[in-house]
Specification:
This protein is about 50% helix and about 20% strand. By secondary structure, it is α+β, with helices and mostly antiparallel strands. The protein has a five-stranded mixed barrel, surrounded by four helices. The N and C termini lie far apart (about 40 Å).
Length: about 200
């Protein structure tokens, strides 16, 4: 089983990325936030946690920028009717801590926002996973002040490039406050990288 990949981001498409590891291209399905981070890093190196699913007719790799995302993916995939792509749709709609909070609060309408998740499946997810999200739902309070939108995508990109969440978050806090820096994810990543490299010099 493949547990992680580290290599060059060869390309990023709508629902997957190709990571070149020693000349071998691995096609990895991922959530929208993880793909946005990888898109900002195309041509550079990235690290992804991986969940490998083996079927009779295919081996599918799912990639994650954070352990929280992978953990929640595993929980979601354990629910009958939730396949890998549906789990990614949920993680593309809600951040892991937000989704965990919705599950613990039995907020079925919020869960059902994800494409392909109807009321019946949302109810099954809430019922079967309630009480199992543990540390994820507890982390909501810590993540209230976490970045959102382009800044969240930039943070995911920096983590995929190997930077620790704390150091990446500090760099992003500095560059987002700079009026001379564009506020799209790619601009934030470039500015944050300059800051991080300067700090390491």
């Amino acid at each position: 089983m493949i547990a992680s990949l580290e290599g060059r981001v060869a390309r990023v498409e709508a629902d997957h990325a190709v990571i070149d590891v020693g000349g071998v291209g691995y096609l990895v399905l991922a959530s929208a936030p993880t793909l946005a981070g990888l898109r900002a890093a195309v041509g550079g190196r990235a690290f992804l946690l991986v969940e490998t699913q083996v079927r009779e007719d295919a081996i599918t790799l799912f990639g994650f920028a954070t352990e929280d995302e992978r953990l929640l993916f595993r929980l979601l995939a354990s629910v009958q009717g939730v396949g890998g792509r549906t789990a990614l749709a949920l993680l593309s709609t809600l951040a892991p801590a937000e989704l965990a909070q919705a599950i613990e609060a039995d907020d079925r309408a919020r869960i059902a926002r994800a494409p392909g998740v109807g009321a019946r499946l949302a109810a099954r997810i809430a019922t079967e996973l309630k009480g199992k999200t543990g540390a994820l739902s507890a982390s909501v309070a810590r993540q209230v002040s976490a970045p959102s939108g382009p800044a969240a995508d930039a943070l995911a990109a920096l983590q995929a490039l190997g930077f620790r969440p704390a150091e990446a978050g500090r760099a992003l806090a500095l560059v987002t406050a700079d009026p001379g820096v564009g506020q799209d994810a790619a601009s934030l990543v470039r500015a944050a990288l300059r800051h991080l490299k300067a700090g390491a010099a």
